[in-house]
Each structure stands twice: as C-alpha cells, then as structure tokens.
Amino acid sequence: MDTFYISHGSPTLSIDDSIPAGQFLRSWKQNGFPSKPSSILVISGHWETSVPTVNSVSGPLNTIYDFYGFPKAMYQIKYPAPGSPDLASRVKTLLTNSGRFPKVAVDTTRGLDHGAWVPLMFMYPEADIPVCQLSVQTNRDGSYHFDLGRALAPLRDEGVLIMGSGAATHNLRMLRYGAADGAADPWALEFDTWLKEALVGGRYEDVNRYEEKAPHAKKAHPWPDHFYPLHVAMGAAGKESKAKLIHHSWQAATLSYASYQFSTADAN
C-alpha cells in the first residue's frame, strides 16, 4: 500500500464543485488509487496534542465542524465512517514498541475533523471503511514526524491506507481571494517548487529540515500543523520510496493543493 499526502486546503472544498482539488479527489478510484483499503489512518493538521494520540471509537464517528462562519450547508454534511479500535490499538503498539514514542495516548470520544472527512467524503463517499486519526505534535520537528511514520510502516502490508492531510502551503493571513485562477504569489510558488523538487528528487532529509533548507519556509508555514502530516506519510513509505506529484492547483494565490503519492520501499 502506497502512502499519500493530500492538501485539503479550504473547508469550502466540501461544497464548491469548481475547486480543481475536489474534482481530483472525486476521481480518486478512477485514477487507480486504492479503491478499498482495509482501514484508513489519517494524520490531520487539525489535531494537535502534546504526545501522539489516536482516536479509538466504536461505531460511526462524529463529524467535527472545526471551522467558523462558513455556509450553513457545510454544517449539515455527515461522514459517519466507522471507527477502528483495532487500528488504534495497532498504531499505539507500533509506536510504543519502536522505542521512540514511549507515551501514546488514546481518545475514546473524538470523531473526524475536516482535515479527515473533507477529502474522504470524495475519495470514499460510501463512508464504509474504518477510519482512525493520529494527531501531530507541533512542539516537535519534521524529523520527529518522519520517525513517527517510520514506526507505522508495517501497516502498509496490512492493507491500511496511511494518509497525511494538510496543505503544501498554509498561511491564512496571506490568502488573496479574487486572484486569477491558477495564480500564485512568487514566495508561495518558490516554496512549492522547492518542495516538489526535494520530494521527487528523494531529498527527504532536506524536507525534514525544511525550516533551514526551504525558501520562505516560515512564510509558507507560520505554524507547522499542516506540514507535519507530509513527514509522517513520507516516513511511512521509507527512505528509498519514490515521491510523485499527483495533483497541483492553487487557490487565493497562496494556498497550494499539491498532493503526493509515495510508492513504497522497504522502510526498515
């Protein structure tokens, strides 16, 4: 099972059919991506905790509306995928046994935030695949999250789809709504291009150290919450994996929807 990093961008993706990233996700299965994984592990930029935390919920997961001031229709969307206590337990075991993450927490009430359900509602609209979420730790760095992914690599052989969900660039204060379709501000384009070249070129260590290696790193990601899911997906695929850009589009001149597939190799 390959791993993926999906830029979910704005929550309006859920209702705006004109956004190219939504059109890409709607054609997920038709494009040959995994059609029926045994379960899905989502690392979302919208769940930050001090230690790695998984949600372990039996039955349908609640749909969390973790955004404000958007159209009413968005608060009526439901994505009642089943939770996966078995996957949550497996994730906790893998992380703990790795020796690098001695403390892993379990949340028995949390549902799916929009970093999970917005892309999944297009990718797997039937909502019949068990889903588990894993949090990010914004007090740590990219290498830490890469190692988090490395510990989870065995899930690939168990039919689990590992998906990081965030945004390739994420500076909400710099959005320019009304910008021409496909337009990108120079700083955002420069960071986005650097990221593509680093990933496709296999320079994963540079991506782990993006704050010192990438141009405009702090401007592209003032806070790393939406970037660390990429490091987990990258780490889970292994150092010898091949990265491929599978979608690219812009919104508001600074929000990149660049999404990547990591064709897996031996991660050990």
CATH architecture: 3-Layer(aba) Sandwich
Number of domains: 1
Q: Strand tally, please?
A: 10
Mean pLDDT: 95
What's the N-to-C terminus distance?
16 Å
Summary tags:
about 270 residues; alpha/beta; Protocatechuate 4,5-dioxygenase, Chain B; 6-stranded mixed sheet; two-stranded parallel sheet; 9 helices; 10 strands; about 30% helix
Kindly describe this structure:
- By secondary structure, the protein is of the alpha/beta class.
- The chain has nine helices and ten strands.
- The strands form three sheets. The chain has a six-stranded mixed β-sheet with strand order 5-2-6-1-10-7, sandwiched between helices. A two-stranded parallel sheet has the order 3-4. Strands 8-9 form a two-stranded antiparallel sheet.
- The protein is globular.
